Amino acid sequence: MHTSASYPVSVTIHGEQGTGKKTLVSALHKHVYIRDQDNAAFLFKAQLANESTKNLASVSFVLVDAAHPKQISNEVMSLARESSALTCILLTKPDLISAEGSNDYFSYLYQMHRLPSEFDCDCFAINITSDKGICQVMHYAANSVAPLPKPLSWKAFLQRSCSSCLDFIATLFSLPTDRPPIDIDAELAAVQTQDDVDRLQDDTRTIAWNDDLKHRLRINPSWGTPGVHRITPSLVVKETGSFERATMEYVRKHTTILIPNLYHSHLGSLLMDFVDGEMLYECWDRQTWFMQFRIACTLRTYINQLRTLKRPNVGHVEDGYVNGIFFSEGDYGPFESISSFRRFCTRVAYLGWEILARRALSSYEPQEPLPNKNFDWSPTFVHGDLNMTNIILDKRGRLWLIDWGNAGFYPPCIESLAMRHSNEMILQDTVPSSWSRYRQFIAGATSEDEEKFWDNVYLGFIHRFAGVSFR
Predict the structure, then answer these.
(1) For 108-155, what is each residue's pLDDT tens digit?
(2) How confident is the model at residue 401 (pLDDT cuts 50, 70, 90)?
(3) CATH of the domain at 57
C-alpha cells in the first residue's frame, strides 16, 4: 500500500500492576499503523515507564483497571507528564464491568468523567486484548503526532453565507445607537462616598421606586429590596462586585452597544446612569411587528460585536472566574485552558445525566445517550443573561443592555442557550412566543447536543455542586 508520509511514534506506559501494561507494550512496539484518512504510516516504539525514562516520548499512557479503579498517585502522573508532551489515561478491562445500570457501571462512567477533570488530560476506555482497542490507542497517538486537517464542510460554508446575509439585514434595520447628552454634575457631587450612597438608598423616593420596580418585575414584596436602587433622578446604584464594572468598561471600550455610563470607581457599589425607558418584559407586546423586528435586528448586531471579542481562556474579564445561569450562580475557576474548562463541564454534565439515567431505570424508561461535548468551545464574549428584563427600550427608541454580572468569555452557544433557559424555564409563563421565536435569529441556532449537554450541566450543578464555589 502506498503511504503519503511516515512518522515515528514513541510511547511510554505507566500504571499499577494488573492493569495490562505489558500487554499494551507488546501490542504496540514495532507495530506500523496506517491511518485510513490519508494513508500516513506510524511506526510505534513502546516501553514501560521507569525513573530513568527520558523526555522523548510522543505520548504517555497511564493505565487504570476500570473494574477495580485505584487513585492515580501524583508520582505516577508526574512521571508520565515528565516523559512526554501529552498524557492520556486509559481505563482497561471495561468488559469486566457489571451490567449496564448497576452501581459498578455508574461508578465506572463517573471515573471516565472525573479523571480527565481532575488531571486535565484525555481519558477513554479500551479493551487492550482486542484489535479494536489497540487500534483506538494507535489512532489517538497518531493524531497527536500528526493531526488531521479539518475537512472543508459545505454545510458550514452555507451556514456562514446565510448568517452573513442575515447580518446585512440586521444592520439595515437596527435601531440608532447615539447617546443623548446629559448633565449630571450636580447629582454626582451629592454622591461622593459610600455613606452618601447608603443615605440616599434610605430616601423615601428611592424606597418608592424600589417598590414600583418590584411590582413591575412581579417580585413578592416580602423578598426584600432589588439589587438596584434609583438614588437620584439620573443615577442608579447596584450592589455587585468589581468584576461587573470591569466588564462594562471593557464592553464600552470595544463596542458601540448602549450600556449605562459608570461613575466614581472608588465606591463599593456600581454607580451608573438611570435609563429612562421600559424593559422589553413590559413593552414588547405593545410594539408593532416591525418594531419588534428592528429590536431583534439591533440585538443581533450587539451580539455580533460581542463575538468579535476573543481570548484564549474562559471567565470574567477581571479575574477569569466563571459563573452564570448554568453554574448555579456559583464561582468556579479560574481555568488554565479551555480544555480544562471543557473537562470540568463534561464531568458536571455527567452528574446531571446520571440523575436522569437513574430515574429512567427506576421507571423502566430508556436512557438518554451520554452528553456529547463535541461542539465549538472557543471562548467569545457573551452577555450571558439576555432575558427581557435586562433589555430596555428608552423613550427615544434606543435599545440598552443592562445587568452584565454573568458576562464573560464562554463558548458561543452559551448566549443563545441562556436565552432559551430564561424563555423556557425561568420566565416560561410570561415570555410571549413572538419573543421566543427570535432567539436563534438574535443569538444563533443551537444543536440538540448543545442543548442537552448544558441542560445536564445545569442539573449537575444544582444537585451535586450546589453551594460549592472555587472563588
Answers:
(1) 999 999 999 999 999 999 998 888 889 999 999 999 999 988 877 788
(2) very high
(3) 3.40.50.300
Q: Please name which of 379, 414, 405, 380 lies closest in space to residue 323, comparing C-alpha atoms.
A: 405
Residue 111 lies in a domain: yes
Average pLDDT estimate for 334-354? 95
Q: What's the grid cell of residue 319?
A: 479575574
170 & 57 share domain: no
Three-state SS at 309: coil
Cα(141)–Cα(137) distance, integer angstroms: 6
Q: Which residue has the cell 423616593?
A: 205
Residue 452 and residue 398 share a domain: yes
Distance CA 405, CA 414 (A): 15
**All residues at 6 or more sequence positions from 103 whose CB lies less than 8 Å from its CB, including other chains:** none
Strand-pairing partners, residue 62, are 14, 89
pLDDT, tens digit (0-9, with 9 covering 90-100), for 204-261:
999 899 888 888 888 766 666 678 999 999 999 998 888 999 999 999 999 999 999 9
* Secondary structure of residue 80 in the 3-state scheme: helix
Nearest 5°: phi and psi at 80?
-60, -40
Return all residues near 409 (Cβ < 8 A) that are at least 6 apart: 309, 310, 311, 313, 314, 315, 317, 379, 380, 381, 382
Rounded to an integer, what distance in angstroms lies between the CA atom of residue 246 and that of residue 96? 53
Nearest 5°: CA angle at 138, between 135 and 144?
140
Q: Are residues 32 and 105 in the same domain?
A: yes
Same domain, 57 and 174: no
The answer to whether the beta carbons of residues 414 and 315 sit under 8 Å apart is no
Give the count of beta carbons closer than 10 Å to the beta carbon of residue 421: 22
111, 166: one domain: no
- Mean pLDDT lowest for which of 315-324, 432-441, 454-463? 454-463
Say what the pLDDT of residue 54 is. 60
Please indicate, yes or no, whether residues 46 and 169 belong to a single structural domain of this protein. no
